[in-house]
Amino acid sequence: MTARPIFIAGGILLLLVYPFLLNDFWVLQVGGRTLGFGTIALSLVFLSAYVGMLSLAQMTVAGIAGYAMAYFTAPMGGVGLLLPWPVAVVIALCLAVLAGLVVGAIAVRTEGIYTLMITLAIAVGFYYLTLQNYSMFNGFTGFTRIPPPHVLGIDMAQPKPFFYVSLVAAALCYALVRWVVRTPFGLALQAARDNGRRLRALGYPLALPRIAAFGLAGFIAGVGGILNVWLNGSISPGSIAITPTLDVLMASVLGGMLGPEGAFLGAFLFTVVQSFAIYLVPPERFNTVIGVIFVAVVVFSPDGVLGIGRSALHRIAPGRQPLSGHRDVTTRGTEAPTSLPATRPTFEADGQSTGENHHAQ
Length: 361
What we know:
By secondary structure, this protein is mainly α. The chain is built from twelve helices and two strands. Strands 1-2 form a two-stranded antiparallel sheet.
């Protein structure tokens, strides 16, 4: 047996027994927050690693789902409706997907830094909309006292039930990403990421798959947004301001954008630093601490914590593909594939060619 299955089995076992090894603070505020925040970061990593587009609007999409849950389950000051929570979850996820599609329809018209700028503009615009609108978003106050649901008589507000529900939701989103990138749809996304002009020349559409990918990322971000609202019990414009928006990007970079695991690794590291930095530095210096860690990771391991882990795994199992074989997604379009696929490109989930393609005649 190679080292990889052992690490995977150990990680799953650790997650299952995690609530029984640590106190409620670690279970709820670290574990639960990591899973919700990591799911939002997962939507960003999916877009970056497999679509080749970096979006700063993922926290906005998560916020739309969060506001929908608050509006339909915790009306406040005459704002909102009271619906059963399963109905509210469906509505929130549908709105998140719709928001993702709208963001995607705008973003696919741009590339590189312009994608960042247009998605940042969307995030800022929605922030001010929630801040100034009282008929739907309740203005500066937002919504408070949003109760987590009771499922089969189990109070989801308790640390262990909330952790396991968050774990199941995050695991399903992770599995969804892993499955999608191996489907023809996911392979087309990766081919468009690597050389869009060549794919277009072969007759494949580029815009529609990318917009659909944004819709999928919106669904994942919506799941994370719902978990965050249940955890915090409130949502306000501050939840989707510039700082939380950039936090998603920083957590993704810290964890590494080579694969979906990086989203949760980065979210865990970010949450731990956010929770305990107060004991080392004043609260107003937190951004300085996380900034120093961010710079250190970027300088010493541009692929984040996930890159460090894969390098260590390669040393243990030399037969694995070395880390240098992974393509930097920021260099999209600069590689020159040596051959064209006859039917469809065949890639592994991390974007490397499997070498099983039938070359074009």
